Amino acid sequence: MQKMTDFVVRTSLLFGIVAALIGWVFFDGKVACSIGIGLGMGLLGYCSIVRLTQSLSMEDGKAQGQKGYVVRYTMYGLILVICAWMHLSILGVLVGFLMHKASLLAYAQIDKEDHHGRAS
């Protein structure tokens, strides 16, 4: 789990920095800031999922999972509302969030190739 988390955080930051620089060059600083906020939102959500999985119990696992889900999506909604209120780019926030998701896909692909290579 720690190996995956390290990869996801590093790769998310790399993807997010590249996206923010592109946003800054082609649009403006508000877009770059929005991308950074979206990336931070994605990483916060990921860290909360990691903490949740490490603390799940057999007795209350379903309830803990549902509570974590509600808290996480409430946080996402609040961040989006605050960004809209501040006239930041909602699309930029979503791009930053997607940069985090792209790092998860990259990890899954690399992990799949590692396992496939070992099986051969």
Automatic annotation (TrEMBL):
Keywords: Cell membrane, Membrane, Transmembrane, Transmembrane helix. It is found in: Cell membrane. The chain crosses the membrane at residues 7-27, 33-52, 73-99. It comes from the Bacteria. It is a multi-pass membrane protein. InterPro entries: ATP_synth_I. Its main location: membrane. This is ATP synthase subunit I. It comes from Absicoccus intestinalis.
